[in-house]
Structure formats: C-alpha cells, structure tokens
Amino acid sequence: MKPRHPQLPKGARIYLPDEAERKRHVEAALLDVFRRWGYREIVTPTFEYSDVLATGTDEDVRNNMFTLVDRETGRMLALRPDITPQIAHVVATRLRDEPKPIRLAYVTNVFRYDEPRVSHYREFYQAGVELVGLDKPEAEAEIIAMAIEGLRALGLERFQIDLGHPDFVRGLLDEAKTDPASGRELRAALARKDGSTLERLVADLAPPAHVRDALLALPTLFGRELVLEHAASFARNERSSKALANLAEVYRLLKIYGLAESVLLDLGEVRGFDYYSGTYFEAYVAGFGAAVAGGGRYDDMLGRFGYDCAAVGFAFDVGRALSVMETQGVAVSLPGPDFFIIDFTPEKTVALSLARRLRDLGASVARDIISRGLEESVTYARAQRVRHVLVIGHARAGAGEILAMDLTDESERVLPVGEILEHPERVFRGVRHA
C-alpha cells in the first residue's frame, strides 16, 4: 500500500527536526537578549473570546481572525491574530497597579486568515517585547537598540532600521483638510512611492502652498540626520513639529548608543499609520524583500481596554529571520545525541546503567534497540550527528569493558565500565561530575 501524503491547509507549515532546532535557536537567542534588558516572559492563551480580541485589534486584522464557537457558552472564540492586544488587555485588567514601567517579553504563534507572503504563513511565530508605562523617547530608543542587538545575536549583517513617525504626515493631512477617502489615497501613493499620483492628488486638494510643498517633499525625506533639518522647514503645525522633535530625540539617543549608522529616517513612511501613535520602525536585511522585525509606539491601545497608559513594543518574525539567516549563510549548530549506545548482550544491564548515569549528568543519550550489525548502527549514528558511540559486547572489549568510538576524530578506546560510571568527566570531555 502506497503511503498517503495528506496536503496541509493553506498557510500551514511543518518544522522538521533540523528546522525546528534552528527555530528554537532563533527564539532562544532573542529571548536571551530580551531578558538581558530586564524583560520578563509572559504567556497568553492561544484563543480568547473574539469580542475581547476585537477590542484591541485593527479592522484589517480583525477581519482575518480564525473564529470558532465555544460549545459551552455559544460565544464566538478567535485564535489570537496579534499578541499586543492580548498583553494590553492583561496590563489593563491584571497588571494595572504594578509599578511602571512594565517590561514584558514573549515567544508565541499568531494566526491570521490572509494570503501567505514571503516566509510568512497563516500561522506564524513572533518573538517580541512590550514596554508599558514609559512615555519618554528613551522607550523607543530602548526597543530599537534591542532590535539591533537581536539582529546581531542572530548573526545577521548588512541590516538597517527604517524609522519614521506617522504624526508628521498626520499633521500635514490635517493642514490640508483631507477627508478620509482622499487621505487614504494620499497614503497609498506615499506607500508606493508613486510621485506622479501624489502630484495629481495634491493638485486636486489645492492646499496652501507650504502644505503642498511639504506633501510633495515627503518621498524625499529619507536618509540620515540631515533629513531632520530638511523636514524642519515643513513642520509648521504643532502635530508635525512635535513628531519631528520626538524623532530627533530618539535619533540623538541612538547616537549615544552608537547605533545611528544602522538607522535611516523616513518621514514619508505611512505603514502602521492606523496602528501606531508615535515612532514606527521596521528592520530590513540586504537581499531580503520583507521586514524581519518591526514595532513602535501604540499609546492608544490600552485605552481601548479602559486604561490610558503609554506603551511601545516590537516583534521579530521568526520565520523571516530563519530565511534571512539561510540567505546569509549563518550557521546554526545542530548537534545530535552526545552518546549512542549499541548493546550486543542479552541482559542490557550495562546499557541501561550507562544511559541513566550519563543522562543524570545532563548528557543526551540514545540507544540502538534495533538488532543489526555494528557497521550499520554506526552509519545510523553518523546520520544522527552522534559524538560518542559506546559498544557493549564487542569482541575487542573484555568483561566489564566497552568499546568507545569518537565519531568527531574517528578514535577508538576500550574503557572500563566502572570508570565511566564513577568518573565520566575524566573519560569524556564536556560531561560534568555530579
């Protein structure tokens, strides 16, 4: 009978053992960065009542939630499409009285019923942080610095942070007195960097001359520190002026961190326009066409749950980070078991004693329970990336002895079983003594 190969649902992915090991490496490396900055892990439920999730979720994401019915109550449930609203709800209800700021980290999966994109599925994994209760520019500088440290912790090179502030554009749109429809058209043209469409839309609006010039200049307000000076001449309204001052202070702090060379300012950036209340950034790596990480300030989020409080955060897309690492040839160690025990004796006493002793000391130990020849078993061990093979009942080993094979240097030794059980650290490097 031929094996069946059932098709996965669209947007689902299986991580085979080596892929899963790489995924865990990325998650552990990022979580280690977050912890070193003083962030503590939070774990939220995979599903909640859909109306609760919808409270903190933007319309586009809300329309792409996976929903189901709670059999007990009849209420609609939803798989989380975004973890930030969940954390905002937790802070507003369970952590409201905690001393501020609150620093939270997470590694989790989220679900969105949208079209899969570059290394991005309908179930995808994120590693990120939320910094709650700090309304100063130091908060934005901290998370951007953490994002850069995360990129470096993954071994990535040739990356940049695109940093903007939606309020700079919002202030100009307020001055231009745009209605919602024309505002959306202008933002769409800016997102595409479509200069000709932008010129036509601005001409139709016929705003004051200084506003017209500012809107048409937005696609060019991209680069390093000089962009701030150039943009200052256009920031005549209070909203745009405050945004520019905030962005300038964040950039100043990043210079103190020694990270300004990794940051490009983009005052015409409109992604996240309906989500972020302040600075917004995305992390890009050369040769990869999608953001690996992104985040910003979302001070309005907690207010949706009845608690007005400042908040800023960001997240890595784990799947995209893995793809970029593969593209850049970043090696991830994929060790197999430390020991592989082959036993040709019927009683199994020595094999089980060795396995238990070595595992108790923290080593990983697999046993070859299948009856087959030594050469075939060693071939299997190599395929599993085993380091040490311990052979019990080999012709070269006498009573109370085993044959130890080191597959990293192809050496062989005959060792007393008692010595291994008593002092394994003297026999095998890397094994600690209890």
Characterization of this structure:
- The chain is α+β, with helices and mostly antiparallel strands and 434 residues long.
- It has 2 domains: 17-327, Bira Bifunctional Protein, Domain 2 (BirA Bifunctional Protein, domain 2, 2-Layer Sandwich), CATH 3.30.930.10; 339-427, 3-Layer(aba) Sandwich (Rossmann fold), CATH 3.40.50.
- Helices cover 39% and strands 20% of the residues.
- It is built from 16 helices and 17 strands.
- The chain has helices at 17-36, 50-55, 59-62, 83-93, 137-153, 166-176, 180-192, 195-205, 209-217, 226-232, 238-257, 318-327, 349-360, 374-383, 417-422, 424-427, and strands spanning 40-41, 47-49, 67-69, 76-79, 102-111, 123-132, 159-164, 222-223, 263-266, 280-285, 293-297, 311-317, 339-343, 365-368, 388-392, 401-406, 411-416.
- It has a 9-stranded mixed beta sheet, sandwiched between helices. The protein has a 5-stranded mixed beta sheet with strand order 14-13-15-16-17, with helices on both faces. Strands 2-4-3 form a 3-stranded antiparallel beta sheet.
- A hairpin with a 4-residue loop joins strand 16 and strand 17.
- Helix 1 (17-36) runs antiparallel to helix 5, helix 1 crosses helix 12 and helix 6 (166-176) runs antiparallel to helix 11.
- It is elongated and about 95 Å long.
- The mean pLDDT is 91.
